[in-house]
Amino acid sequence: MVDLLFFQPIQLVPWCFFCIAYLVWRRYGFTRATGGRPLPPGPPGRPIVGKIFDFTQHDVHRLFMRYSEQYGALHDLHGLGKRIIVLNELSAINDLLENRAAIYSHRPESVSGGVLMGFSKSMILLPYGPEWRAHRKLARMALGPTQLKEYAILQEDIAASLAEALLDTPHDFFSLVRIGAGRMVIAVTYGIRNSAFQTECIMNGERFVEFARRTFTPGNYLCDILPFLKHAPSWVPFQCELQHGKEAFIEFQTKPFEYVKQEMDKGNILPSLTLRLLQCPPQGMPDFERHLMWVGGAMFGGMPVCTYATVLTFIMAMALNRDKQRIAQAEIDAVIGGDRLPRIEDRRQLPYVDAVIKETMRWQPALPLAGLSRCTAHDDFYRGFFIPNNSIIVPNVWAIAYDPRSKYNPEAFIPERFMDVNEKIVDPDQWAFGFGRRACPGQNLGENSVFILVATILSVFDILPPENEALEQEFTQHVFRSPKPFKCSISPRTFAKARLVRLRAAEGVA
Ligand code: HEM
Fold first, then answer.
1. Of 128, 267, 319, 347, which sits 20 to 30 A from 225 (CA to CA)?
2. Mean pLDDT (the chain, rounded)
3. Is 220 helix (H, G, I), strand (E, B) or coil?
4. Close Cβ partners of 49 (under 8 Å, ≥ 6 residues apart)
C-alpha cells in the first residue's frame, strides 16, 4: 500500500526487469567461476544468518561430525556473507592444508582479536606472507634440537617443583598445574626464574589468554561477523572490553621482553629462546627486535593452554581409570627405578606412558577444531566441489579422534589402541598440532612439557576419584577445550618418593 503511494504499477516493470537481469548475471558469473560445479553440501540454514551460529553451540565438533555422516568429508555452512567449509576427514585435510598449502595457509581476518585488540602482527594471526615467514624463521632458530636440550633441564626443574607443590597442597592441583605450565613457558621463552616478577608475568599471560579465548570463539563478538562495527564508538561495551584486552596484551608481550634485554648483560637470566636470538640475530632481517618481541609473545600465548589442558585431562583420565594408571606406574618403576625422577630423555623407554599421553590427546583434544581456522587465497576445486576464494576452512580433528570405524570404542580411555600392531590408529601427532606450513612450531617443546609433567606425576603420586561423589567431567567449549575445575585425590605413592621430590626440587634453577 505504502509502495503504491510512490510507484504506479507500470513503473515497477523496469525495476523487475533490472532485478531479474541482475540475478541472471550473478548466476552466469557464478557458473562461469565454478565451471558448473556445486558448492559442498550442507545443512539448510535460516534466512540471512544461515548456519553461522552453529559455531556457538555446545560441543560444536560433535555437531559437525553428525553433519559429516549426512554430507560427507566436507560440508558447507554459510550466513551473513561468510562461507565456512568444515573438513571432517584426515585425507581431505591433508589434501588441502598440506598439499595445497599456497591456497590454504592464510588466517581469516580477526576484527576483535587482530584489529581491535592489536594481536594482528602475531605469527598466530599474520597472513601467509613475508612477515609470517620471518617469524617462523625465528621460531625455527629458537626451537632446534640443541636448544630443546637446553630447555629440557628447565622443564625437568619445573616438573619437580610442581610435584613438590602437589605434596604440600594436593587439593590445589588445578591451579598448580596451570601455574606449572605457565612457569615452563616463561622459563623457556624468556629465562625468567621463579620470582615475584615471574608470577606477575604468568598472571598477565592468563589475563591475556582469557581475552584471546573470547576473541577466537566464533560468534562472541558481532564485529567479527559484521566488520564495519569496528568503527563503533569507544564507549560501546565490546569496544571497552577489547581496549582492556589490548592493554593486557601489550603488558603481557612487552614486559618480559624488555626484562630480558635489561638483564642479559648482567647474566641474571636462564637460557631462553629470546636470549638465544638476541645473542645470535639472523643476518639481514630488518626490524629484527620488533619481530622477535612478537615471536616471543606468540610462543608465550600459544604454549601454556594446550599444555595445561592436556595435563589436567590426563589427571582426570587417571582418576577414572586406575587400572591404566597402575600399568603406567609399573612401567616407570621398572625403567627408572626408585632413585630419581623421570627425565625427558626417558621418553623412548616408556612406550605405555607415551600411549597414555597419546590417548589423553585423542580422548579430549585441547583444540578439537585444530585451533584457528584457515582462509582460502583464491578459488579452488576439490572432489568435484567449488571452494570460493575467502572461504573459512575449519579442520574438525575431533572427527579423526572419534573415528567410528575404529575397533576400539572412541568414548573410552584405552591407551592400548596405540600399541595394537594390528589396528591402524592415526597417531595424534599427525593432527593434534595442526597441518602444513602453519603446523605448530612448538610441537617438540610442547610434547616434552606434557611428557615430563605426566611422567613426574605418575612416578610420584596416586590419583583417585573424589570420595563419596562422582568426578565432574565438564570441559570448556569452543577453541580451547580444557577440563573445568574438578575434584580428585592426589597423594604420594610412598614416603621415599616424597623425599626424592623435595631433594630434586631443591636442586632446580628455574
Ligand atoms: C600440547 C601442546 C600443543 C598443542 C596441542 C598445540 C597445537 C597447535 C595447533 C593445533 C596449532 C594450529 C596449527 C594450524 O593452524 O594448523 C598451533 C599453532 C601454534 N602453536 Fe602450538 N601447540 C602446542 C604447543 C605449543 C608450544 C609449546 C608453542 C610455543 C613454543 C606453540 C606455539 C604455537 C604457535 C606460535 C602457533 C601458530 C603457528 C602459525 O600460525 O604459523 N604451541 N599449535
1. 128
2. 91
3. coil
4. 79, 80
Pick among 3.40.850.10, 1.10.630.10, 3.90.79.10, 3.30.450.40: CATH of 73-507: 1.10.630.10
| Structural domain boundaries in the chain | 73-507
Instruction: Check if 425 has its Cβ closer than 6 Å to any atom of ligand 1.
Output: no
**Alpha carbon distance 441, 343 (integer Å):** 23
DSSP element (H, E) containing 79: strand 74-79
For 5, the 3-state DSSP assignment is helix
Taking only the tens place, the pLDDT of each residue in 62-72 is 999 999 999 99
Length of the chain: 510
Question: Is 181 touching ligand 1 by the criterion CB < 6 Å?
Answer: no
Please tell me the distance between residue 156's alpha carbon and the centre of ligand 1 in angstroms.
21
pLDDT surpasses 90 at 301: no
107 Cα nearest atom in ligand 1: 40
Is any ligand 1 atom within 6 A of the Cβ of residue 450? yes
The per-residue DSSP string of 374-406 comes to EE-SS-EEETTEEE-TT-EEEE-THHHHT-TTS
Distances (CA, A) of 411 to 87, 359, 407, 475: 21, 11, 12, 15
For 126, list phi and psi in degrees, rounded to 5.
-55, 145
Report in angstroms the alpha-carbon separations of 110 from 208, 364, 372.
16, 26, 10
CA pair distance 455, 359, nearest whole angstrom? 14
Residue 240 labelled as part of a binding site: no
Q: Ligand 1 centroid to 349 CA: how many Å?
A: 26
The mean pLDDT of 406-428, rounded to a whole number, is 94
- Cβ–ligand 1 contact at 299 (below 6 Å): yes
Residue 298 Cβ < 6 Å to ligand 1: yes
**Binding site membership of 433 for ligand 1 (Cβ less than 6 Å):** yes
Q: Which residue has cell 601454556? A: 304
Which tens digit of pLDDT belongs to each residue from 129-156? 999 999 999 999 989 999 999 999 999 9
- Convert the pLDDT of each residue in 67-105 to its tens digit: 999 999 999 998 878 899 999 999 999 999 999 999 999
| C-alpha of 472 from chain center | 23
Counting ligand 1 atoms within 8 A of each CB, the residue from 294, 427, 433 with the most, and so the one to mutate, is 433
- The ligand 1 atom nearest the CA atom of 367: 10
